[in-house]
Amino acid sequence: MPQTLRWSAGELYLLDQTKLPLEVVEEKQESVEQVWHSIKQLKVRGAPAIGVAAAYGLLIGVREQTAMNLSEYLQEVENKAAYLDSARPTAV
After folding, report:
1. pLDDT tens digits, residue range 63-81?
2. Residue 2: which H helix or E strand, with range?
């Protein structure tokens, strides 16, 4: 049985649930924007899965941040979390 999402070697893969049951398509998520679109387009479904996908999306979005002080970094985390929340505000 395919996994709804998986984290492997520092990369997020989501099962595109819009393709089921005819196809099993796993999409690599390379940016916070891509995760946002996957949530918005209902490629990942169910509040728990959406929450976990958003958490990994947040990690993807902030892990490359450099040259920031702690206050700026925390503000960036908050901004990206709010952005992800806007994809499905009733579920994330």
Report:
1. 988 778 999 999 999 999 9
2. none
Domain range for 69: 5-85
Residue 5 pairs in a beta bridge with 14
Q: For the chain, what is the domain count?
A: 1
DSSP state of 40: H
Query: What pTM did the predictor assign?
Result: 0.89
Which contacts qualify for 81-89: CB closer than 8 Å, 24 or more apart?
81/54, 83/32, 83/36, 84/32, 84/35, 84/36, 84/39, 84/54, 84/57, 84/58, 85/54, 86/36, 87/36, 87/37, 87/39, 87/40, 87/54, 88/39, 88/40, 88/50
- Hey, how many other C-beta atoms are within 10 angstroms of the C-beta on 27? 15
Q: Is residue 92 part of a domain?
A: no
First to last CA, the chain: 25
